[in-house]
Amino acid sequence: MARTRRYWQITFVFLRRGLGPYLRGRARRGPSTPAGRARLARSLTSALEEGGVAFVKLGQVLSTRRDVLPPEFVTELGRLQDRAAPVPWPDIEQIIRDELGASPEDVFAEFDRVPLAAASVAQVHTARLTSGEEVVVKIQRPGIRALVERDLDIVGRLARTLHSRAAWARSLGVVDLADGFAAALREELDFRVETRNMASVAAAATARGSDVRIPHPHEDLCTGRVPVMQRLSGTALSQAGPSIDARGLDRGRLAHVLLDTVLRQIVLDGIFHADPHPGNVLLLDDGRLGLIDFGSVGRLDTELRASLQRMLLALNRADPMAVADAFLEVLARPDELDEQGLVRALGAFMTRHLGAGTTPDMTMFTDLLRLVARYDLAVPAEIAAVFRALATLEGGLTDLAPGFGIVTEARAFGETYLRERLRPGSLQDAATNELTALLPTLRRLPRRLDRITAAAEAGRLTLNVRLFSDDRDRRTVTGLLQQVLLTILASTAGIMAVMLLGLKEGPSMTREVTLFQFFGYCLLVVCSVLALRVLAIIFRR
Fold it and tell me: For the whole prediction, is pTM greater than 0.85?
C-alpha cells in the first residue's frame, strides 16, 4: 500500500509538470526547437527535484549523459542540488550511539552539534578526537534506506513501463540505465564502501606523491552509517573564487593539477573519483587542492587500463587503425561490425577534432559517444564512469579557469605519459613484466606439444567441438524449430478439421450439427490460432 501510494504520488508529480504524454509513450518525439526542449528540460528537472532523493540523484546522473541527452537537458539537470534540512540533534545522537556504541561526548573530545553541511543522504559534523586531531563525521539520515529502496523500486518499474511503451526509452536503454543507477545508489548508501574507496585512493595518491590531498579514514570509527575521516580545512571550489583571487593563486595551475590527478587515477592507478564536481573539490588553507566524498568511485582492471593506455598512445600518433583496435578491446562489439567503416569514421573524427590547427573541446566526447552508438558498440559501466567523471570535471574546471582546455591538457598528459613510457628504465621494466607473465606459458608449452604429438602418433588425437555453445545460436535454432512445429500442428489441425466437417454421420448434438462436426469446428479454431501466430512471428520482423 505504501509503495502504491508513493507510486501515484510520483506519477501525479510528473503529470502536474506536463510529462504525462512521455510517461504513457504517446509522445512520438520531443520538441524540435531549442526553446521547446528547454521548457521540457525545466519541467523534468522540477519533477525530479520534487520527487525526492532518489530522483534528484537520478537527475544528477542523467546530467552527465551528453551522449544520450540534448544540451538543454544536460544544462537544466546540472542545476539539481542535493540539499536538505538538517536532522534534529536527538536523532543524530541516537544514530551515533547505535553505530559507535557510545554517546558523541564519550567517543570524541569535542563534537559540533551544528552540521557543517546537510544533504539528502547524510549530513556532516566536525569533531575532535581525544588525540587532538580534527575530523569530519558523516551521519546517514534516519530512515533514508527504506525511502531510497521504495523509490528505486518505482524507478525500476517506471523504466520497464517506458521500455514497453515508448520507442525513445528503448533506444536509450532506460532499463539498463535504471539498474546501473540503482546499484550505484545502494553502494553509496553503504558508507563502509566509501571508507574502503577512500583508503584505496589515499594509498595510491601517497605512493605516487600526488599534489592533491585525500583524507584518510579512521577505520576503527567507521561503520555502515557513520564514517569518521580526517578533516581537510578549506573551501569548496564552487565557492572559492573570491579566495583564489584574494590570495593571488594561479587558476590555470590549479586546474592543471586537478585534471592531472584525475587522469593519473584513471590511467595509472585504476581507481578514481567518479564524481569530482566543484562541491567535492576543496581549496585548502595551504593553497593546495583536496578531494572529498568517495561514495562514488570508479575502478578499472589491468586489461581496461592497458587498453585505455593503448588508445591514448594511438590518439597521440593519430593512428585510426590502432585507435579502432584499442576501441574494440574496451567496448563490447556487436555480432556484425563494419570495421572498415569504423576505422574511416575514427579517421574523420580525429581529423575534425585533433587535426592541425584545431582546438579540441568537450564536443569531442559527445561526437565520440555518438560514433559509438552509430556502430552499436556497447560501453561498459567502467568506461561510462570514466566519461561521466571527465564530463563532471569539465564543468568545474571551466568555472575555475575560464578558457581552460580539458582535451588539450589531456593530450599533453598523454604526451608526457608517452615520454615516461619510452624512458630506458620504463622500457626495461615493461619488458621484464611481459617476460615474467609469459614465462609460465613457455614452461608448459613443451609438455603440451609432447602430449599432442604422442596422442597423434597413437591415433588418439581428438577434437572436441561444442555445437550451439552460444546462447544466441540456441535461441535462434529453438525459434526456428518452434515455428516449424507450429506450422505442422496448424496444418494437421486444419486437415483433420476439414475431414471431420465432411462427415455427415455420427452422434447428433443438434438437428444440424453432429459431434464430429463440432470437433471439426474446434480444430478449425485451433488451426486458425496457430496459423495466425506463425504469421505474426513472420511479419513482425
Answer: no
